[in-house]
Amino acid sequence: MPDIKHFDPDAALEAVVRLFWERGVAATGIQDVVDRTGVSRSSLYATFGGKQDLYLAALRRYVEQWSRPAFARLAEDPRGLPAVTGFFTELIRLRCDGPYARWGCLVANAHTGPSSADPDVRQLLEDHHALLVGALRTVLRTAAARGQLTPGTDPDAGAELLALLAYGVNLRSRTGADPAALEATVTAALAPYAR
């Protein structure tokens, strides 16, 4: 007889993503997951595995729903440096205003948590970083082709630096940083790039 689910695994995972994103994995117990999803422990374990498996599934979903589309939009933006500015403006807006304000980024938060030592989580973090750097590298190369970068600017090193800036925005926004201060920091960081 086939196993019949009495809950929607997709909806449950979406709730778990938001729970881990908002509270962090270390501060979230399995009872919190049960309370948020309304799904019993045994059903959660049977569907997703243990808490670490559930966390990894949540991270993967976050990357697919949030990170990958944002990075693709950035890489495909033909404007060059204005695309980078737009990326950071939107990042600051999302992190400082609206329903996800002060949640930071689930992936950036994972870098600082104890689960980052797990090899599967570590691999996901490395893959995510490569996607972010790749998108920034692409848009900086577009900027170079458009004559927007100062001479001698290295798009590879610049992409790594801007990725670190994105992580910083995510982490600082989680602690309630002032959006105007974050915007000023981004403006200062981008100033040396602009011709």
Report the CATH superfamily of the domain at 59-193.
Tetracycline Repressor, domain 2
Mean pLDDT: 95
Outline type: elongated
CATH class of the domain at 59-193: Mainly Alpha
* Tally of contiguous helical segments: 9
Topology:
Blueprint: H1 9-23, H2 30-37, H3 41-48, H4 51-76, H5 81-96, H6 106-112, H7 119-145, H8 155-174, H9 179-190
Helix pairs in contact: 1-2, 1-4, 4-7, 5-8, 5-9, 6-7, 7-8, 8-9
Any descriptors?
single chain; 195 residues
Structure description:
There is one protein chain. The chain has 195 residues and is mainly alpha-helical. It has a domain at 59-193: Tetracycline Repressor, domain 2, CATH 1.10.357. It has helices at 9-23, 30-37, 41-48, 51-76, 81-96, 106-112, 119-145, 155-174, 179-190. The relative contact order is 0.12.
Short summary of the structure?
By secondary structure, the protein is mostly helical.
